[in-house]
Design a protein that fits this description.
Oligomer: single chain
Order of helices and strands: HHEEEEHEHEE
Helix content: 25-40%
CATH architecture of one domain: 2-Layer Sandwich
Radius of gyration: 26 Å
Largest sheet: 5 strands, mixed
Distance between the termini: 67 Å
Number of strands: 7
CATH topology of one domain: Nucleotidyltransferase, domain 5
CATH class of one domain: Alpha Beta
């Protein structure tokens, strides 16, 4: 028995955790970078309405995001002002690139409905009839 105790005596095994910590930090950075790629810039001048029964759509691919301001101005996410014929052309080219293209409208809560209707109609003329409306979700 004395020989068995002599075999197990000594400094013991030590695990170096620094490579694992490095790996965790690299994974954290990777997920932070890819999460930012999925989002799109939001215009702070567009205050979207609140909806009690809103649902968050899960499919992000194929969205064309347009902002509508109170005065009826239409802008894309780059800040370029668009006319209704340009909206139709943009939606037509988006439909040609992706058959599942959808219009994502970020309309200010004070926008008259006629402006939203005209943008939706221009999108439909471009071949994209599916519209996603941005709203804030009320948590119960």
């Amino acid at each position: 028995m004395a020989k068995a105790q002599e075999l197990f005596e000594g400094p013991g095994l030590k695990a170096d955790l620094s490579p694992m910590i490095d790996l965790v930090f690299l994974l954290l950075i990777f997920f932070m970078v890819t999460a930012n790629m999925i989002t799109y810039p939001k215009d702070p001048n567009v205050v979207i309405p609140v909806a009690s029964d809103s649902k968050v759509p899960t499919l992000v691919e194929g969205r064309v995001v347009l902002n509508i301001y109170v005065d009826g101005t239409i802008k894309d996410i780059s800040g370029n002002t668009l006319s209704l014929p340009e909206v139709t052309q943009r939606m037509s080219s988006a439909k040609a690139k992706n058959p599942n293209a959808r219009l994502h409208l970020r309309a200010h809560k004070g926008v008259p409905y006629r402006h939203i209707q005209s943008v939706s109609r221009a999108s439909s003329e471009g071949g994209v009839a599916t519209v996603i409306f941005s709203t804030f979700q009320i948590s119960n």
